[in-house]
Specification:
By secondary structure, the chain is of the alpha+beta class. The chain is built from nine helices and twelve strands. Strand 11 and strand 12 form a beta hairpin.
Length: about 300
């Protein structure tokens, strides 16, 4: 039997402390708390870890301040293109989508790819057609419009840059994604990650989020959801790297996760991750200014943080 535990993140590379207002911090913490409670309600009722991460990430996708679902950033053409992935560590099954538009909760579509197809990753028009076939909830473009995201696009176009999430010109290298990892009463693990990608994206770039083993991974050793500069997480297969360090080096979850982040740091890759093991241990290392994050332990105790508290 495992000890139920849950962790969520709303992206690394947060707003600098000097720019974070008290009211805005309250809102971010509220978004994290809502996701934790949604996932914990599943685990507390002896539900499975897969349902828990699904529920938690849906809450994060519905929260407009995080770069996923409703809060997704705009491409150069003024569109919202979203990626998501989910993986069940017990069955080793996974599903992912990339370049999807007008899907209210991309993580739910990723789960349908896992459960209703023989594939792992669907992208673009094919993924959208699959969403229509599965009758998932869609939303019009107005649902995804948020003023602060549109301003980010205008600032990025004016500056001639592509940026990765939370802030504008005052914060040129922000990073963002949302995700959840969980352990249920049976010791089974699951991970899910979702993102709106990069502001002012032009060339069809896909990051680590929908790539199994890079930004999302779960097996019998750990479940991992990453956030950061996706190219580094892809080339270092970072999510799987944590599991490999546990499997082959015999490291604890905390040590394995920290080693993986330290490796990225040496390569000048920025970001963080959340991870959980079958004993309900949680690790949330990062090398950026901060990471929107929260956890619930087996006693039902919530912890929420943004910076290096």
């Amino acid at each position: 039997m495992g000890k139920p535990a849950l962790a969520v993140h709303g992206g690394a590379g947060t707003i600098f402390r000097s720019e974070m207002t008290p009211d805005l911090e309250v809102e971010y913490r509220k978004g994290i708390e809502n996701a934790l409670r949604a996932g914990w309600d599943v685990l507390r009722a002896h539900g499975c870890s897969l349902d828990a991460v699904d529920a938690a990430v849906r809450q994060l996708e519905d929260f407009p301040l995080f770069n996923a679902g409703r809060g997704s950033v705009f491409t150069h053409e003024g569109k919202n293109e979203m990626d998501a992935a989910i993986m069940d560590g017990h069955s080793k099954k996974a599903g992912a989508v990339a370049f999807v538009r007008n899907v209210k909760n991309p993580v739910g579509l990723a789960r349908l790819v896992m459960e209703r197809t023989e594939h792992v990753l669907l992208a673009g028009e094919g993924a959208i057609l699959f969403a229509e076939e599965m009758e998932v909830e869609l939303a019009d473009n107005a649902y995804f419009y948020t003023e602060h995201r549109w301003k980010q696009l205008e600032e990025a176009i004016a500056a001639g840059r592509v940026q990765l999430d939370h802030a504008g010109a005052a914060h040129p290298k922000p990073i963002g994604t949302v995700g959840a990892v969980a352990c249920d009463v049976n010791g089974h693990l699951a991970a899910a990650t979702s993102t709106g990608g990069m502001t002012n994206k032009k060339f069809g770039r896909v990051g680590d989020t929908p790539i199994i083993g890079a930004g999302t991974y779960a097996d019998e050793f750990c479940a991992v959801s990453c956030t950061g500069h996706g190219e580094y997480f892809m080339t270092n297969v970072t999510a799987f790297d944590v599991a490999a360090r546990i499997r082959y080096k015999g490291l604890t979850l905390d040590a394995a996760a920290q080693e993986s982040i330290d490796h990225l740091t040496r390569l000048e890759g920025e970001g963080g991750m959340i991870a959980v093991d079958p004993q309900g241990n949680i690790a949330m290392p990062f090398n950026s200014e901060g990471m929107y994050r929260g956890s619930v332990n087996s006693n039902g105790e919530l912890a929420i943080a943004i910076y290096g508290e």
